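Chapter review. Work through the record for Glycoside hydrolase family 127 protein before attempting the end-of-chapter questions.
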Amino acid sequence: MFPSKIKKVKITSAFWKRYQQLIINKAIPFQWKMISDKEKPKVTSKTAAGGASEQSNALNNLKIAAGLKKGHHHGMIFQDTDVYKWLETVAYILGEYPDEKLKVLADKVVDLIGDAQDKDGYLSTRYQIDTPKLKFKQLQQSHELYSMGHYIEAGVAYYQNTGNQKALNIAIKMANCIDSNFGQTDGKLHGYDGHPEIELALSKLYECTKDKKYLYLANYFVNIRGENPHFFSDQNSYNDIKYDPFPEMRNTSENYFFDKKPIYEQKMAQGHAVRVLYYLIGAEHVANLTGNYELSRAVSHLWNDIVKKQMYITGNVGQTAVGEAFTCDYDLPNRTDYGETCASVAMAMLAKQMEFSHLSGQYGDVIEREIYNGALAGIALDGEHYFYANPLEVDENSKYNPSSSHLSMKRLSWFSCACCPSNITRLLASLSQYIYTYSSKNNYLLLDQLISNVAILNNDIEIRIKSGFPWKGNVEINVKVPANEKLNLKVRIPKWSKKTLVKIDGQLKKIHPENGILDFQIVHNVKINLNYDMSIEKIHANPLVMADQGKVAFKKGPIIFCAEQIDNSGNHTNYLVPKEINIEAKYEENLLHGVETLEIKNAVYQEEKDLYINQENRINRKLAKLKLIPYYAWANREPGSMNVWFNQSEEKYND
Ligand code: FUB
Ligand code: ZN
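Structure tokens for Glycoside hydrolase family 127 protein:
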């Protein structure tokens, strides 16, 4: 479902069509088997982030709540959301690729969710089944509004893409239940959920129904957070809560819940990364819908903090496994990174939301970083294995150090906390919504992601994009304009393109992009050719990033590269790259479903015997080749070490 101006977008890019087919043919059926316990996960890990899963029970919990089965709730307190995000993924897919069999299955899931919902609209199977007396009484950890928020998102998406009214009605009933329980008025609960999500969900529900009640409620949840930094401890003691679903959360002192101050006073992104980001998505949406400039400014401040000081080169965010959290500016350790897939998905969602309010290329730059790197690494090329945490460097020894034992060298089938798999699939399934952004306020259409597609606008303008992305920088835009129609088309110039050539109907034009955006006023059929500079870039980090000092990373266009052990024998830390590199890119059709690889022909392999080395005991340095592959494609072959940042060699070596 696209905003008013856009009727339809069909992705034609071979790269992305493969992913869409993967989601249809592999990920959706596979995730269904997991959430309905038709199969046990084959690859799990007890130490890796997300935890091992034997059984999901997610669908079963709904059946128990619906009275169709007997038993106890099993799994995470928010296990319902695995079903909701699966449904949301299916919704986007059905919008583009109608499939009666899949729709029948998803309709049944909607019916089940409707049956599980209480008469008053409440739905959180864990509380309904096992602890009904505690409904809305332990908001610090209950995830009730988080879970319902995920349903509201799914219900809206399913309604918009398939027309299933019941899916929307369930969402409305749920939001009404929340509205009658929460708010300023006397007798209502003056509080909020430990995990933001409801804010963004209610904003979407408002946009779909146009019922202002949901916008007021979203606004309420955005603004109450941080008003009373003791809300959770007060509620826990007032309700005499003895049992904690997540005991470590009870007395967490730092800004884990992002509620120590109102957003207007928060100067640095701190706390659980996904919570912070979901909150910011909702806050930005509310700011945009209500015209709250102060709120929008507060969100932009935190956005800048994240993307300019706390984001890994891959787009991953959340530096520590302790609390799955942001740490502080310029602290970007590679070996202990967390970088949850959900956090990368949320970064793309936040960037998209920001783009509705502000015209700047920086948001599309982040979306691009996520969809080709940080977020995309969350799913295997086979669609049936997922990363929860996404390292920038890992090897056999990582598991021995408690601060990196959450990392894995292979993607897993499923997790006891299975939030990431369906989060990455719902992002990829909705990718066509990330290509254009229409501003109803200023009546322009921004071509944001330079992905081959065909788009039809409501006034029958047709836009055809043929692009070489992500491997080549050529983008051809053909616009067909019916008589008396016109279009203000803006096109993003990615920051990495140092020189962009533009031709309009074959004529070379001088361009003057502003904030990474080019402007075209189109009144008749036109062909625009852009040529972005996709030369290989050697990247250094700011000197304040201690972990990357003396190191370089490699990027070409939107793609960040890494080295894997399978391509480079020996130990990955023994490789050094010289300052003047001899590097070549080549497309390898039969590798990893077709990828571009880089080869550094004059790398150095340094082999030593002693623990510490000076000129006297230094033994062996030899010329070596170092092969790099796109980061998103790592861990799809034999497990082994991987690194994104490379040490540099001061010296040159010859054979
Ligand atoms: O708490 C719900 C989800 O589980 C979070 O968004 C993830 O970070 C994981 O902790
Ligand atoms: Zn996750």
